[in-house]
Design a protein that fits this description.
Layout: H1 2-17, H2 41-52, H3 58-87, H4 93-124, H5 137-146
Helix pairs in contact: 3-4, 3-5
Length: 147
């Protein structure tokens, strides 16, 4: 192990001598460790450098995609609810009820797919701090109806 560390140290020292670290963004500024507090100490610098250069670990990109899809699904359900409230005053009640049932069914189906993605994501995370809870579609629909 000491030979490996010595070899890595030599590579780093050579890179310093050759100026490889001269043009890094944020040079001379304090490093912000707060945004990666849940990441193990050994990986924080690596994740920070990736993030600063437009890259993110797969599990973070996966989480962002899930959160984005969930937000879009909630927005569609919310628009359907708003339509239901407006249409119930002028449209045939059975039609309004049928369309709302379709919207709820589509939301429940999408949440089921997202929950599978969330469970898969939870199996791939490097630390428990990144854990995501699954979504209860019925609670979401009930909360929307109460608002």
């Amino acid at each position: 192990m000491a030979d490996r560390e010595r070899g890595l140290d030599e590579i780093i020292q050579r890179a310093i001598r050759e100026g490889a670290f001269e043009n890094l963004s944020g040079k001379g500024q304090p490093f912000n460790w707060d945004d990666s507090a849940a990441i193990e100490d050994d990986w924080q610098l690596a994740y920070h450098l990736l993030k600063e250069n437009g890259y993110a670990p797969d599990f973070i990109e996966t989480r962002q995609a899930i959160e984005s899809d969930l937000a879009a699904s909630r927005k569609v359900l919310e628009r359907s609810w708003d339509w239901r409230l407006k249409a119930s005053q002028s449209e045939d009640p059975s039609f309004v009820s049928s369309e709302w049932a379709k919207a709820k069914s589509a939301f429940e189906l999408r949440v089921g797919e997202l929950n599978k993605q969330i469970r898969d994501y939870n199996l791939s995370i490097p630390a428990q701090a990144f854990y995501m809870k699954t979504v209860d579609s019925q609670k979401e629909i009930t909360a929307l109806a109460k608002s």
